[in-house]
Specification:
The protein contains 4 helices and 3 strands; from the N terminus they run αβααββα. By secondary structure, it is α+β, with helices and mostly antiparallel strands. A 3-stranded antiparallel β-sheet has the order 1-3-2. It is globular.
């Protein structure tokens, strides 16, 4: 098994990607700063934004621009995301 990856509902995501996506499922919509506040252990805002961009490229997360903030939401349900990861 690759380092940083563990079996779970969405295979193929790194542990931090999975953790942030799980937070978004509970908090959505949320900004990077809001996700950062909910993280345990905390990560820097730059790290959160980098992971959110990676999740967006992979198709798990989308965002809208609200003034100077990016507001993130999951693009699909947890079940659909897991199905996508298996395909």
């Amino acid at each position: 098994m690759a380092r940083g990856r563990r079996p779970g509902p969405i295979p193929g995501l790194a542990q931090r990607e999975r953790q942030i996506l799980d937070l978004l499922y509970r908090m959505a919509p949320a900004t990077a700063a809001e996700v950062q506040e909910a993280m345990d252990p905390p990560l820097t805002n730059a790290t959160i934004r980098t992971i959110l961009r990676a999740l967006e490229v992979k198709g798990y997360v989308g965002h809208v621009v609200d003034g100077n903030r990016h507001v993130y939401t999951p693009r699909q349900s947890p079940t659909a995301a897991a199905r996508k990861a298996f395909d």
